[in-house]
Design brief:
The protein is an alpha/beta fold. The protein is 28% helix and 29% strand. The chain has helices at residues 2-7, 24-37, 109-120, 157-171, 191-199, 218-227, 254-265; strands at 12-17, 42-46, 52-56, 61-65, 75-85, 88-95, 99-103, 125-129, 144-150, 182-184, 205-208, 229-232, 238-244, 269-271, 276-277. Strand 11 (205-208), helix 6 (218-227) and strand 12 form a beta-alpha-beta unit. Helix 4 (157-171) packs across helix 6 (218-227), helix 4 (157-171) runs parallel beside helix 7 and helix 5 runs parallel beside helix 6 (218-227). The longest helix is centred in the middle third of the chain and has 15 residues, at 157-171.
Length: 279
């Protein structure tokens, strides 16, 4: 995944999931360790709704809330930030010794964008444990997105794959063509909006600001994307997917799960728990 991102010129890798407990943080760790093995200066941030605890090697740059910075292990405070997280004001730091650090981030896409820019000013690559509703921070940029799918995202393998495929399709909404006729949607494109466009047989481009403004999921997203020419002004770049075949209530055969995900999305799919890639 790191090689795919770097070959595409991406310095930011944003990992999002189809739900909770789908291996998102494990995917972040895998990319982090690969970047360190390549000798890169690495920066990390966790920008979901909850703080994430991660083991950081010495020299790792990270963003977190001031209240989450532990007294031990030691870290060097690089700068304070005016941004606020759920746990209060934020800062940027560098791990002085290896240990577990809690990472927490701002609640807005603009705040996430500011965090990413600051981390990139201090590192070769920034890896973000993110949330789908904040991935707009890398819209229109050279940042890369990895989608994590897991057994907890569906009652069956087919459901979990379909959910991941719908998310990938939504995040990959293409850029609009200014030479072709279009309708601009202010704010989010809702299920009701999409149904109305389909009902009247709309053939013009339906243009939103970025893919996160397509407020649809699952089968409703797939149907709308198939029937309408949904486009965006600031596209995203999804480069890969990962699988977590063991969930809290079920597990799928890992090779079949990864293969089905790769087939459904057209993306390289990685099992970061087994260290394998599907064809």
């Amino acid at each position: 995944m790191l090689n795919i991102a770097r070959s595409a010129g991406a310095r930011t890798i944003f990992v999002v999931g189809t739900g909770r407990n789908v291996g998102k943080t494990t995917a972040v760790r895998a990319i982090y360790e690969a970047a360190r093995a390549d000798g890169l200066r690495v920066a990390l941030a966790a920008l979901g709704r909850d703080a994430e605890s991660m083991w950081l090697h010495p020299g790792t740059i990270f963003a977190t809330a001031r209240a989450l910075l532990p007294a031990s292990p030691a870290a060097e405070i690089l700068s304070l930030s005016p941004l606020l997280s759920a746990a209060g004001g934020m800062l940027y730091a560098c791990a002085a010794v290896g240990g577990f650090f809690e990472l927490g981030g701002p609640p807005t896409a603009s705040g996430v964008r500011e965090v990413v820019e600051e981390l990139l000013s201090r590192s070769d690559v920034a890896i973000v444990d993110g949330a789908v509703d904040r991935v707009a921070a890398v819209a229109g940029s050279d940042g890369a997105i990895v989608v994590a799918a897991g057994a907890d995202a569906g009652a069956t393998k087919e459901e979990a794959v379909a959910e991941a495929a719908a998310l990938v399709a939504r995040l990959r909404v293409p850029a609009f063509d200014p030479e072709d006729s279009f309708i601009e949607v202010e704010g989010a494109l809702t299920a009701a909006d999409a149904a109305a466009f389909v009902a009247r047989g709309e053939t013009r481009q339906i243009v939103v600001r970025d893919p996160t403004q397509v407020a649809l999921s699952g089968r409703s997203a797939q149907r709308a994307l198939e029937r309408l020419k949904i486009r965006c002004r600031r596209p995203l770049r999804v480069i890969a997917a990962t699988v977590a075949s063991i969930g809290s209530e079920r597990e799928f055969e890992p090779v079949q799960f990864a293969g089905a995900l790769a087939s459904a999305t057209g993306l390289p799919a990685f099992d970061v728990f087994r260290g394998a890639r599907a064809a």
